[in-house]
Design a protein that fits this description.
The complex is a heterotrimer. By secondary structure, chain A is mainly alpha-helical. Chain A has twelve helices and two strands; from the N terminus they run αααααβααααβααα. Chain A is globular. In chain A, about 55% of the residues are buried. Chain B has twelve helices and 15 strands. In chain B, the strands form two sheets. In chain B, strands 7, 8, 9, 10, 11, 12, 13, 14 and 15 form a nine-stranded mixed sheet that branches. Chain B is globular, with a radius of gyration of 22 Å. In chain B, about 60% of the residues are buried. The chains are: A mainly alpha, B alpha/beta, C mainly alpha. At the A-C interface, α5, α10 and α12 of A face α4, α9 and α11 of C.
């Protein structure tokens, strides 16, 4: 119950900000909510399926780059066309990369996803035709106006949460949790586990693409740094700090981290030490992440 | 529940707005935003620029145009992925009057995207990306440092005059390196030089052995390179270790030796570079600046510090004319455009595209120190290709 | 490419690979036996390099600096293991990743506070400050050769210890089945502590040997960290022999990639890793246990 109240309150408060019209908070919270989408969708893999992927940032970046390409080269701006195209592109890339990567398991799986992420990073970073290390502008944005973009992001977060919680309660979600618990057993029960995992990978990739699309819309700027493994690492850290295996943990964790980063930097020059202390403290004392602070929480 | 939340939030937003209004009604401080790296690879540059800015401000009694200066610094970590959020924080969140920075050109591109839609006066203190005073130029954007073109184009002439007509180019494969090489090639081709090979090295790797063996086998007259910081330190050492230093002359844009000469040691001996500044420049402004910087920070000043120092000095000059009124936008811009700055690098002024018109010096490492050999290009002015302003 | 240049590039690739091996060997040991994915391994490399610089500035000799710094690294390793890592053996990989990520941030701050942000050069010991000719066009610093030899020597010694000694037998047993080792009455806690500090010291030593070649600078640990993970995974987690061949493969791929496929140079190492893992999903010489 506590969890539901917390989520409702957060959603309502975030929605209300749209009416404030303050440009700083619109962009700041918009960015933070994009982080929530990324964290929730990665948690579908990490927390619920037991797959640790470092390719999440790649799908985010691929969708963002496609949007830049569509608007700049082909004058395709209308979100009714560009949004499905970009998300579908991210999903298709996730299908290919996932299909290949899922041959490996455990740490080897992590490293294969890292390999693909890095190859894509260098593809964009080293080719001047694709914007090179300076990145690209999205010259005309699909959603004009800060408040409108903000509302779109807010709606996306709510929808992603509802979609994922629905999915996880469905039989499909139960199978995923079974796979996380014991892949071998699920296979001997007759489930084609690799196909289940691949579907989860594609859904997560598509949602990361959605986040990338929204980010490029919010700022009108795409850069290879958004694609690199470091960003994937940061999303993973968000999931772990927030509390993997819950949806609200990573979602709220992303918001909380954004605030800590924003205010922490003012408090101390060595604010990275602050983050380090936070990370270490959470690992040692809150094994279930920040979600562990909200008591009485069943899964998802 | 929902309603009261909303009401509460609205009230909070209003009161913070009100507080800000009331606060700024008192004799307003001049808020200068610093978007600079204070951690990561470029941290040393960020600190030097910042300290030099503060030094210049204190020389003006802590006031510019009669307004007390307040610094708002954000660590940009040289991360373009975080750049839009950081710029937003400074412009919309902190409501700075003037925005300065950054070091990294990817961060600069993100900054330009936002700044071009805002009316906040912006002074670029390091990033040399051509676009800043080229295709993306804007009336309220100035640069006090350099364009990549300025650091490399003049070196072509220097090499040709030394009789080196066959060159290998080697550079870090990102925009800074690519733009430096394009500028060099432009000048080198004009003077009749031929480029034997271009070697792009992934940024920021510092493993050069394979490419050094390649150069050794190609036997060119000279090598022109772009590397900076730790990569520059390692490259120069590897180049000497491979026995190439005495066989194939090494040239570069000044960043090859800037700030890393001590780390390079004897390996750097004899290297010729071009840059708009040199530690050893013999003019009163430079002597005074270097002494004051050393006293204030206990570190040696460098080209990065000079850009920070000049930024505040040129702002002081312009703000004096408008009596500190940053709202008087066009007057302030006009004042900057007509400013003449007596900088440690020598006198400079802004071009039509708002990039410095400045002398580029030829420097050579002699006895472990950077000696000024002469002026490689007098009043070097960036072509500002693609800029539609002021033409 | 002429034959002599080809040979030269092979030497370059092997030499680069050997140094990577030294960093990766400690990583694979800790990973394979303790089951800990240690992101702070790169920080230990950086720490070693900074200690080599700082101590050799003070003592005037790199060799003295190394002799002092190795025990220091062992102590650091023991402290980190006791205070942080040891609390997490029972938990899963991801908690360990998060913890060691926190340590990376902490060590970066430490470096910033203690030694600042400048780039520093480290001079080689005078006895090894000469160069040898390599083909007719190029020379090679003796320190490079010395480093390569040292890496080979350490690799051989590690193999001997793991295969031939009582301690090595426990290590191998620990790698395959920790519970059984405990049942045999071996103090696993002690074994793990020793191994972790050995891994720390190996990373530090690699940093010390590399310092004169790479110069010392902030963030130097991170690029090495990722490459060592690549090496460990290509070789197969826990296998020192695998790490050796993986490192040489990465060194050669990187070297020839830069020369033959310059447009693709940055991605080549990752392409090699992806190819190896798609072919053999547990690395070249990976052990049988899953998930590690």
């Amino acid at each position: 119950m506590r969890r539901r109240l917390l989520l409702l309150a957060a959603a309502a408060a975030l929605g209300a900000v749209a009416f404030s019209g303050d440009r700083f908070w619109l962009q700041f919270l918009g960015k933070a909510m994009i982080g929530s989408i990324l964290a929730m969708s990665l948690d579908l893999l990490v927390g619920f399926t037991g797959l640790v992927s470092l390719a999440h940032s790649a799908f985010f970046g691929l969708a963002a780059y496609l949007l830049a390409g569509l608007t700049n080269r082909f004058d395709l701006v209308n979100p009714v066309v560009t949004l499905p195209l970009c998300v579908a592109f991210a999903a298709a890339c996730a299908l290919v990369i996932g299909w290949l990567s899922l041959r490996a398991t455990g740490v080897y799986f992590i490293m294969v996803t890292l390999a693909f992420t890095q190859m894509l990073f260098y593809l964009f970073n080293d080719s001047p035709a694709l914007g090179g290390s300076d990145g690209l502008y999205v010259k005309t944005r699909p959603i004009e106006g800060r408040a409108a973009a903000y509302v779109a992001i807010w709606a996306a977060v709510v929808l992603v949460y509802l979609l994922l919680s629905r999915l996880l309660r469905a039989p499909y979600g139960r199978v995923l949790e079974g796979i996380r618990g014991n892949d071998q057993r699920m296979r001997s029960l007759g489930y084609p586990t690799r196909r289940y995992k691949l579907v989860a990978f594609v859904i997560a990739g598509a949602l990361a693409g959605l986040a990338g699309y929204l980010d490029a819309t919010l700022y009108g700027f795409v850069n290879p740094a958004q694609l690199g493994w470091r960003q994937s690492g940061l999303i993973l850290v968000t999931v772990l700090l927030g509390g993997r295996g819950t949806l609200y943990g990573p979602a709220l964790g992303a918001l909380l981290l954004a605030f800590i980063e924003h205010y922490g930097e003012r408090v101390t020059d060595h604010w990275n030490a602050l983050i380090a202390a936070l990370v270490i403290a959470v690992v040692l004392f809150l094994p279930r992440g920040l979600a562990g602070l909200v008591q009485g929480t069943p899964r998802a | 529940m929902t309603l009261s939340r909303r009401a509460l939030l609205g009230a909070a937003a209003c009161s913070s707005l009100l507080a800000r209004r009331l606060f700024s009604a008192t004799p307003a401080k001049l808020r200068i935003g610093l978007l600079l790296p204070y951690s990561g690879t470029y941290a040393a540059l960020g600190h030097n620029i910042t300290d030099a800015m503060k030094l210049a401000a204190s020389e003006h009694g802590g006031k510019l145009g009669g307004r007390e200066v307040e610094w708002v610094a954000v660590d940009d970590e040289s991360d373009p992925a975080k750049a839009p959020a950081n710029v937003n924080k400074l412009i919309a969140g902190e409501k700075v009057d003037i925005l300065t920075g950054p070091v990294h050109s990817g961060v600069a591109m993100a900054m330009m995207q936002i700044v071009r839609q805002e009316n906040v006066l912006t002074v670029v203190t390091n990033a040399g990306a051509q676009a800043v005073t080229g295709t993306l130029c804007a009336p309220h954007v100035f640069r006090t440092s350099f364009s990549n073109w300025q650091t490399s184009y003049p070196c072509a002439d220097v090499m040709l005059k030394d009789g080196r007509k066959k060159a290998v180019l080697m550079f870090w494969n990102y925009s800074f390196g690519q733009e430096s090489m394009a500028a060099f090639k432009e000048g080198y081709a004009k003077g009749g030089g031929t480029i034997v090979k271009e070697i792009a090295v992934p940024f920021p790797t510092t493993e050069f052995q394979a490419n050094l063996s390649e150069i050794a086998s190609l036997k060119p007259d000279a090598v022109f390179v772009f590397f900076a910081g730790a990569g520059a330190a390692k490259f120069v050492k590897d180049y000497a270790d491979a026995g190439l230093r005495d066989r194939v002359a090494l040239y570069g844009s000044g960043f090859l030796t800037e700030g890393v000469l001590a780390a390079q040691g004897a390996a750097a001996e004899g290297i010729k570079t071009t840059l708009h500044y040199a530690d050893a420049l013999d003019n009163p402004a430079n002597r005074k600046f270097r002494e004051a910087f050393k006293k204030a920070t206990n570190r040696e000043a460098d080209v990065y510090a000079v850009a920070g120092y000049d930024t505040v000095n040129v702002l002081a000059q312009a703000l004096e004319k408008v009596k500190g009124d940053t709202g008087a936008h066009s007057e302030l811009i006009a004042a900057l455009e007509s400013a003449r700055i007596d900088s440690p690098r020598g006198r400079f002024r802004f071009s039509k595209t708002h990039n410095p018109i400045q002398d580029v010096y030829l420097r050579q490492v002699r006895g472990g120190r950077e000696a000024v050999v002469g002026v490689a290009m007098k009043d070097a002015e960036d072509p500002g290709a693609g800029c539609k302003m002021g033409k | 490419m002429s034959l002599s240049l080809f040979v030269l590039q092979v030497v370059n690739g092997l030499e680069y690979g050997l140094l990577l091996f030294l960093v990766a060997s400690g990583l694979t040991l800790v990973f394979g036996v303790l089951g800990v994915l240690n992101f702070a391994h790169g920080s230990f490399y950086m720490l070693g390099a900074y200690l080599a610089w700082w101590l050799s500035e003070r003592t005037g000799s790199l060799l003295v600096a190394i002799l002092v710094a190795i025990p220091a690294m062992v102590v650091i390793g023991l402290a980190v293991e006791r205070l942080a890592i040891a609390r997490l053996y029972a938990r899963d990989h991801l908690s360990q990743v998060l913890l060691t990520y926190g340590l990376v941030l902490l060590f970066n701050e430490l470096q910033r506070a203690l030694w600042g942000n400048d780039v520093h050069g480290v001079s080689t010991p005078r006895a090894l400050a000469w160069t040898m000719h390599l083909g007719e066009t190029q020379t090679w610093p003796a320190w490079r050769a010395f480093t390569a030899l040292a890496c080979v020597g350490i690799g051989v010694a590690m193999r001997q210890i793991v295969l031939k000694t009582r301690f090595g037998m426990r290590v191998r047993a620990g790698a395959s089945n920790a519970e059984m080792v405990e049942a045999l009455g071996i103090d696993v806690r002690r074994l793990f502590a020793i191994l972790f500090s050995a891994g720390t010291a190996l990373a530090g030593l690699a940093g010390m040997l590399a310092a004169p070649l790479t110069t010392v600078y902030p963030g130097m640990g991170e690029s090495v960290l990722i490459l060592s993970f690549v090496v460990v995974v290509i070789g197969g987690i826990g296998s020192i022999k695998g790490a050796f061949f993986g490192a040489l493969l990465v060194g050669l791929a990187d070297t020839f990639g830069k020369v033959l496929l310059p447009g693709f140079a940055s991605a080549i190492v990752y392409a090699v890793m992806a190819a190896v893992l798609l072919w053999r999903p547990r690395g070249l010489l990976g052990p049988a246990f899953e998930g590690r």
